[in-house]
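If you are new to this repository, start here. Below is one unmodified record pulled from the training split, so you can see the exact layout before writing a loader.
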Amino acid sequence: MHIYVRDSQVQNTAEKIAKMDGIYSCSVHIGNSDIVSEFIHSDSSEDVVKIIGAIKQIDNVEKVLWSEEVFKLPKHPEHLMKSFKKFWSNNINQKK
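And here is the target side for that same chain:
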């Protein structure tokens, strides 16, 4: 779920959400949404509607968007290593 908050109390709101039944993870984000949360649910749409409704009841929550991962593509270790090497190289060069 992507949760948008009206004020600067993002961490407090995330902590409230993290304590809710069914919430698997909750993290504060910079960018599009303020909080991203993962929710474990049965195949019932009713579970999803209930948790979204409960989150919307939190005072400073502006909106909640449901987003669901369908599948992950396989990782390519060679690309990951290239990225890390580039990152390390850039950081070493900046420190000189």
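Two things worth knowing about this chain: Residues 2-65 form a domain with the Alpha-Beta Plaits fold (CATH 3.30.70.920). The beta strands are 2-5, 23-28, 35-39, 61-65.
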